[in-house]
Amino acid sequence: MTLQDSIRKIGDNALAASRKMIGLSTRRKNAILGAMADALDQQRDLVKAANARDLEQARSSGLSSALLDRLTLTDARIDGMIKGVRDVALLPDPVGKKIWKRTRPNGLVIEKKRVPLGVVAIIFESRPNVTADAAVLCIKTSNAVILRGGKEAIHTNLAIAAALQTGGESAGLPQNAVQLIDTTDREAVRELVRMDDRVDVVIPRGGESLIRAVVEHARVPVLKHYKGVCHVFVDASADLKMALAIAENAKCQRPGVCNAMETLLVHQSAAPAFLPALAEMAARRGVELRGCEATRAILPSCSQATEEDWYAEYLDLILAVRVVKDLKAAIRHINTYGSHHSDAIVTSDAKSAKAFLKQVDSAAVYVNASTRFTDGGEFGMGAEMGISTDKLHARGPMGLEELTTYKYLVSGTGQTR
Asked: Is the pTM of this model over 0.85?
């Protein structure tokens, strides 16, 4: 069987499984998730042995310490994975939820209800916990899922997927509802994302290069999260103590994530008082500042920012700083250079806050709060599939509802048009 035939067979199996998934009740799905969690616990030694094999190969290939850490599964991390599966079982099931119902003048009764997407393909990089996270979110929403992880975690992913399949099928999960592509050949991804007759949506989770490669070849709709170039704007009326605390949290609490601040904008009237305090915080926390000319006039030791810095997603303790003339200039900068992810204003002016909320074109817009809150759990949505910077069909944190679509159920008494 050729690689193309193999991937198409996986697609055929997923499509058949998705038809059966529609019939599962919430109680049955929760029982399946419970059995999956039990199987992960029972097979943890197999998962750890597979992970050790991947780590050995990763070290010999010179993988960085940061990537090795992401790849490593300790008992505590496996416990966290198991807890994550059980937590999803506790979340409300969106499938079948009524969005609205209305009766037309001719007597037709129309209901708009949530239904599964169908077949979801998830393409992700080194973190093996995504195998479980993605699978259980899809199961909870009655979707069949095709998983394709990175080559660094291939053995770990196979072991996790096997546990999920064994546990799930013991509790009534349709066969092939969870499948993992077991080849690291990149052509498998190209074939997968072209199968618009079998796959309903592709969700890539990883770096910008992975996402762009998927989009380049895809015929299937792709839910994208290119990058997080997030901003905090310190307005003229800002409480500067609050602004400094928000800036420190947004940049330093976890700099390597997509909702961390990458550029700080400061109103010209607040800059003389605020920037020296910022510089003290940056020195204490080991943050490199790269500033515009107006910033460097106040902070001469600050590096010169380039045009590329305004577009940069550093994912590190580096911060671009720009002094702007006013609120309009701040909004213009964010809409020009940002990635439409998460942006915040610190202000005491209600009018400025309202304008910022209305005019900044991002998935999450904040007033007087850190951008680090853009997260499914922090938003009260429970687990998430990722954070979309798209506008269709999901935007921002993608929880269970974002793994559904809707259809119209129309009941009549013989009406004709």
From this structure: yes
